[in-house]
Amino acid sequence: MNDEGRLVVYNNVKSAYTKTVPAVKSIMTSCVDEMTNVKWYEYPTLIEIMQRAGYRAEWISNQNREGLFDNEVTAFALLCDKLVYANEREELSGYDECLLHLIDESIADKSSPKFLVVNMQGSHVLYSSRYSEKFAIFNAEDYVLSHPHLSQKSRTTLSEYDNSILYNDYVVYEIMQKFEKEDAVLVYLSDHGQDIFNSSNDYAGHGIFANKESQAAAVNIPLMIYTSPLFKNKRPLLQERMEAAIDVAYRTDSIMYTIMDVVGVDSLNGVSYKKKSLIK
Fold this sequence. Notes:
With 280 residues, the chain is an alpha/beta fold. The protein has helices at residues 20-28, 46-52, 72-77, 99-108, 152-178, 212-218, 229-234, 236-244, 255-263; strands at residues 8-10, 13-14, 56-61, 82-85, 114-119, 185-189, 195-196, 204-205, 223-227, 250-251, 267-268, 271-272.
């Protein structure tokens, strides 16, 4: 899609954090670490900003409502006008493609403009549990020549990670196709990356706090923006700005300002944050 000009892929984007809760907080609010006199939940959130701009906010998730992240992450979900958890619908499977049906339901409702947050499981540990059997394409033997320094166990983990990425690409592509005939823009990013044998030949997972090499690996993330043909035709100058910024160095704790820029929200509480947008 990138080669065909149907997708804008950014090359120099990093997450502000290597774990889910602080990363999501930095993505969904205007809070930054330096501002310690106000609680994070007292800052304006991206959900509320989009609602003020006239969008109906919906949160569609393949995560659990209750669990490790049920405090901060669910706090943002609860701000939405509609909240749907796939695992609470018995007819849906546990893999991320179950979100496709829920997105169809949202698109079918034309009552108001929508701001959708689609919360995937993605390529998170355990990698082998993130994809269906038909996506088990890679195996440990594929990495013998390219990764001779890794053990058989580590090469198996690497193959499972790559299978999860392959599956994730499939789901993200299918989501994008669902908006091909809509006036829509999709921003895809990961909350954090992974240390995949960057810091050690036998470690794959979240960035290790005390290890600089591990932390550096785990803040590397993808950021892509898909715009439908209708969106492009209506906003050619905005599309040009998006495409011109592919090499800009950027961190995802400012991504809300990019989204504000895309939808035409020029300021927050009277202060312009346009300079914090990725698309200059």
